[in-house]
Design brief:
Blueprint: E1 2-9, E2 13-15, E3 21-23, E4 25-29, E5 31-36, H1 37-40, H2 42-46, E6 54-59, H3 61-64, H4 67-73, E7 77-80, H5 92-95, E8 96-106, E9 110-117, H6 120-127, E10 132-143, E11 152-165, H7 172-175, E12 186-190, E13 206-211, E14 214-219, H8 220-269, H9 273-290, H10 301-313, H11 315-318, H12 323-334, H13 342-349, H14 356-380
Parallel strand pairs: 6-11, 7-11
Antiparallel strand pairs: 1-10, 2-3, 3-9, 4-9, 5-6, 5-12, 7-8, 8-9, 10-11, 13-14
Helix pairs in contact: 9-10, 10-12
């Protein structure tokens, strides 16, 4: 026996005075439905079908409306979504949120029942998120009888539960995602008997092909073109995905290189300020030792060395000389120069006025001398 689920819209609903929800639901039908061969198990594969082939399964009225089938539909539990196992006396309390009534009716192709939902949470779900119902049942699968335009038939249909399921479908994954049994993706020939053509069978000029999560009948002559189109589309999609992945990889590689270059630049930009200050101070001290009149303000290291060499050896020595030559000459004249010690000099000489202070001091000295001389001149007179 194979587990199956069918999904349909719930019919009219009403609420009892106790707050229970009662629906009128069409839950099983006759006719042909389409499945993938892999959903039917070994019988389809042993019949020569590939796993993704579409197969037609016929539910004959003599099976749908058999007494055993009809008797199995009464009093089955109502569940919220399909449970992962068959509902039995041992699992009923875990899964049941209501039950199907003990009466049923039939029309030409449906079994009609009145499920009642008693759990408050399930009632809320039935009004919002779980607006469809899906019958969970077991059935046998056999090769179709002669004269039936299908690959297989269902036999011995036995209902297990009726599930409230989420509204709407989301393609193939949602179709088989109820986790209880195989679900058809199309009612290909609804009604109490197959729609036939040409003497009671479908025309040999038509063939079923799968497009997305649907199966359609097309002319045999068009099947090859359709399958080629599907293959080309799949290849184009894969090529686009591969190209996108390659572009992302190239961009990531470029980003990695830029990060490495940035780190290298940051490392190179790290400057030892203390070392630079010390080196500059040493250079200025040597230049001053060679010629104290040289003002280092605004001059580069190369300019200071050039000024010191010119002061010591003359301008002709530095004319047209390269920086490297001037550096060599500077080292030669600086090796014997004794840099002064500003602190020691200040202690030895005392604080010496400079700039405006020096000028003011000189003026004061001259003035005092002139005053003395003027007094002497007056005394002698």
């Amino acid at each position: 026996m194979t587990r199956f689920t069918d999904r349909v819209n719930v019919g009219d609903i009403k609420e009892t005075k106790e707050g229970y929800l009662v629906a009128t639901a069409r839950v099983a039908r006759t006719g042909v439905q389409l499945y993938l061969a892999k959903e039917l198990g070994d019988i389809a594969l042993s019949a020569g079908f590939s796993p993704d082939d579409v197969v037609r399964v016929y539910r004959h009225p003599d099976q749908v409306f058999a007494d055993a089938t009809l008797n199995s539909i009464t009093r089955v539990p109502v569940t919220l979504d399909h449970p992962p196992e068959s509902v039995t006396a041992e699992s009923w309390s875990r899964y049941s949120v209501g039950e199907v009534g003990d009466t049923y009716s039939k029309d030409s192709e449906w079994i009609i029942v009145n499920p009642m939902v008693k759990d408050a949470g399930a009632i809320q779900a039935a009004r919002t998120t779980h607006k469809e119902i899906s019958m969970g049942y077991e059935a046998g699968i056999v090769r179709a009888r002669d004269g039936i335009d299908a690959d297989f038939e269902m036999t011995d249909i036995r209902m297990n539960h009726l599930a409230l399921v989420r509204q709407g479908r989301a393609g193939h994954q949602a179709r088989i995602g109820d986790s209880w049994g195989a679900a058809p993706f199309q009612d290909f020939q609804p009604g109490d008997k197959p729609i036939t053509a040409e003497g009671g069978r479908m025309s040999d000029q038509l063939k079923t092909v799968v497009l997305g999560d649907r199966a359609v009948q097309v002319a045999v002559a068009d099947v090859a073109a359709i399958e080629q189109f599907k293959a080309d589309s799949a290849k184009a999609l894969k090529d686009a995905q591969d190209a996108h992945a390659a572009a992302i990889a190239a961009k990531d590689e470029q980003i990695g290189k830029l990060k490495a270059d940035l780190q290298t630049a940051q490392d190179a930009a790290k400057i030892d300020v203390d070392a630079l200050v010390a080196a500059r101070s040493e250079l200025v001290s040597k230049v001053k030792a060679i010629d104290a009149k040289i003002d280092p303000a605004g001059k580069s290291d190369a300019e200071l060395r050039k000024a010191a060499v010119a002061a010591k050896l003359g301008d002709a020595m530095v004319k047209d000389a390269s920086d490297a030559e001037i550096t060599g000459m500077f080292k030669a004249i600086a090796k014997d120069a004794k840099p002064g010690n500003p602190v020691a000099d200040a202690i030895a000489r005392g604080v010496q006025p400079a700039g405006d202070a020096a000028t003011a001091m000189a003026d004061a000295w001259r003035g005092s001398v002139e005053d003395i001389n003027a007094w002497r001149t007056q005394k002698e007179a």
